[in-house]
Amino acid sequence: MDISLLPEEVFIEIALYLDLDDLLACCSVSAGWRDAINQNKIWFRQCLRRSALKFNKFELIDTPNRVQPGFHFPAPTCDTLSDLCPWRKRFMQEAHLSRNWRYGRYISRRIMRLQEPSLIECDENLVLVPNVEMRDFTVFSIEGEPREIDRVPYSLSHVSSDFFKLCQNT
């Protein structure tokens, strides 16, 4: 079928209902089909379906690989193929991370020893651990090697995402 007969908007709307296996099958039909499927809107939807993507924001994951096999974008094998759209690249990164996690390929680090079960709050790059004995929270940066960056007294009545914004500004 010549997909150029369909308006692009209609084709994209149809593709939004396809599952991953069907999308990948469409990509392997021809270069034209691959380009038609290579749309941010389509791959953004796949990212939302398969991952805990926060805030619908796009950022390629730039944390260095610490486990093997590391992730690398595939090198183009043909000069006539267009580059992958940003959301498809993000989807590939998320799928790689998920596969590593599923097969136990990750590094586990103990941030601190807890005396009793505690509620640990997390944000993208910060972990907040309550310390009952000291009556404070310990704030750890988990960007790169985990490290303590601050201690905050228990004077806060509620811990919220706004707290993390305050910590990042210090």
TrEMBL record:
Residues 1-46 form the F-box domain. PROSITE patterns: FBOX. InterPro entries: F-box-like_dom_sf, F-box_dom. SUPFAM superfamilies: F-box domain (SSF81383). This is F-box domain-containing protein. It comes from Ranatra chinensis.
